[in-house]
Amino acid sequence: MTEEKPPYVKEFPLREAHHLVRDLMTPNPWIYWTDFLFHITLGWAAFFTALFSPPFSLWQLAGFIVAVLALYRSAIFVHELAHLKKGTFKNFRLAWNALCGIPFMIPSFTYDGVHNDHHKPDVYGTNADGEYLPFATRRPAEMVVYVLLSFLIPIFLFMRFVVLTPLSYLIPPLRKIVWERASSLTIDPTYRRAENAIRNDLNWHQQEIAACLFGTSIIALVVLGVFPYSLLVLWYLIAVTVFILNSLRTLAAHAYRNPGEHKMTLAEQYLDSINIPGNFLITPLWAPVGLRYHATHHLFMSMPYHNLGKAQRRLVNGLTDNTQYLKTLRNGLWDALTHIWRESSKAASTSEQHNN
Fold first, then answer.
1. Please, which residues bridge with residue 293 across strands?
2. In terms of residue numbers, what domain contains 134?
3. d(C-alpha 57, C-alpha 283), whole Å
4. Is residue 4 scored above 60 in pLDDT?
5. Is residue 305 one of the residues assigned to a domain?
6. I need a surface site. Which of 111, 279, 298, 328 has the fewest CB within 10 A?
7. Averaged over 63-69, what is the pLDDT?
8. Quick one: three-class SS letters along 59-106?
9. What are phi and psi of 301, to 5 degrees?
């Protein structure tokens, strides 16, 4: 006997939605290059402004804030790289890795392939999805722990590329462990990366070695006195702040209600995801590169980030019945976070009552 789908899945206007946005699927290379190069240049300029400004001065504070926001936006392009058509944007991928991915120990192979599984109907929201945890069905404390882990991630990434990379080449059995357990940007600590989980970054060995050499070189230059030790402190503080922002954005990206056993259709994926159009000036600072339209992205994962806002407006105004589409909307980051916190608290309370 086949499982009957919920009525809302049958009613979701997927065909009509696709018809409304089918001309928005082509990425514009000029937008990608201009956006990324502007923000990565701004980010590194602000980084060195903060580094060489008097401690705790307004210049240092301003440099730090600008560096965090600009480098955060630059880093989020790794999400676009995971979705761009296979074999395209090769020079952009190279530039992103050289200017952003490798300096922050997040080369693009750490997301390539892994993130694509997150969009597969057979994987999304299940135990095999490394980017999904059922936070709404668990205790709120787990979300707090998830955010606080941001303080450890930069250290872990540094150790992974500067220490584990050379060790894994010297100790072959370690290679498999490093690939499975320490080579993916995910939120599930139990996630194991499959051997073939790679899509575009077939040169991942070179990316890995480049990150190792970069990190080792920076440490050597600091020890030799070429760079001050404060460079490492600033790199860590900026990285931690970026990861905190991203962890909060991640918590606001989905409803996280699926306990892990149920496979979800494309419509169910959409309805389990969140759109936060928000303020056009503020919202892109914490949900950059189109991620404020995360539910729409799950409907059309190949749509370039610069067209998601246009798609959002077309779907809201153009669908014959937009009732289902509007169910994913939240007013802002605080609204999304309080929403999932309330659901998590209710689930925890219900669980305690059952246990008692």
1. 275
2. 29-299
3. 27
4. no
5. no
6. 279
7. 98
8. HHHHHHHHHHHHHHHHHHHHHHHHHCCCCCCHHHHHHHHHHHHCCCCC
9. -70, -20
